Amino acid sequence: MSSAEIGKFGGSIFGYWINVVTSIVQTVTPKVNETTVENPSATPTPAQTPTLTPGYTQTPTSTPTTSPTPTQTQISTPTPTTTIQINPFVTTNKPGYQIGENLSIRGTAAPNVTVAIQILDPTGIRKNIVKTIADEYGNYSVKEVYTFLKGDSEGEWKIKANWLYKGGKFVSTIFTLPEATSTTVTSTPPTTSTPSPTPTPTPSAVTSEHQELVLYALELINQDRADYGLAPVELGDNEAAQKHAEDMLENRYLSHWDLNGTKPYMRYTQCGGIGYVGQNAAYYGSFYYEPYAMTLDPKESIDYLEYSMMYNDAASGWGHRDNILDKWHNKVNIGIAYDRTTVTLVQDFEDDYINWNIFPYCENGYLSLSGETSLGEVQSIAINYDTPPQPLTKEQLLNPPYDGSYTYGESWVYVIPPPPPETYYPTLESDMIQASKWSSPSSGSFDISANISTFLKHGDGVYTIVIWAEINGEDLPLTTYSIFIE
Prior knowledge:
This protein is mainly beta and about 475 residues long.
């Protein structure tokens, strides 16, 4: 019997054609402490230097606990309409050619919400975001958007208009850009509301059988959470999980990385993700051709993989189970791909608690971001750096370090708030940057800017913004938002 015929889960031999990932989703947890002055004098008092604990932590869930579910306002949303005007619009077979210019967009959303217009290339990768705010009547417009449609892929480009209303519900409208000149595309999607956890509309390319499997996988997750007294998660609409499941099936590998060398949080951001993501990935089948491999039932395989991640995960430190049972997760994006002999399963769990005003961006060495979180208070921001992703082979993905866990960056720096009035930081560690602006006009809101030019000296690569908040003494990551600098 060849090694390809036997799979391992956490180091234990289970049988033919089985292999489940043993990686643990790990995070960096900084803690910031500041000393305030009750009776300020003319002489400033040194503030205590923030105490940070760099490293990777994973707290196992040893006993079932019941946790409160963040309250979300249940409201109906208006019927959004978006009009996209393109003049001129051309296509070409030459990679890198600018296929569109002079793009203007207008539409209707909820009053005073942030609208994010995403430009997606034919592979589904987000090339850029244009942000605006709807007026008091819900109307919004973006004019004279140039150079956002440059890309290196042929095929259909898409525009995705996203907006969030109070309570955190994500409303999305997608348009395919036509191959025509002086064309106007108008669409009125159906009304959306905040129901109990339900799946988002299924793309036409996804079969009803596939959707049934996704719903079954969601049911298993929520049953496991209910067994531990946890609230259910909703089905998200981020496509990164499905794309990764399909890629693993097509190329017969199991890894958090993909053939392009990107990690889960990078792909999540590229597909429009704006919160925090933690991934579970699993594989049932052989990595190589087996002429006599048995035919698998995809539903039974998904059941087996979920059970294994919940109850046979000791070799990976129970990281998969901890991810499934994280009380702060409120969404999950499920990717499933299968053929006769192999099933791949990807669970991208989300923490979606921020209503953005300004998505994180870098300009002239300054990082800026603003919004409001419905969970906790922002304490610090970690900026994690990864070198530019490099293509990987299947053999590389099946071996260390790519067959194990992933971390958010190879180096990092923390942006911390200025000290309280009449105090100062005597010294700052080399991995700390004091924000030039840190405004919190109301509970949960934040408006932050910091000069990170010294950290940007790493050069080209991926800079991932992790917002850390504190709730009831617990540090929580609210974002894994990647900025790609080339």
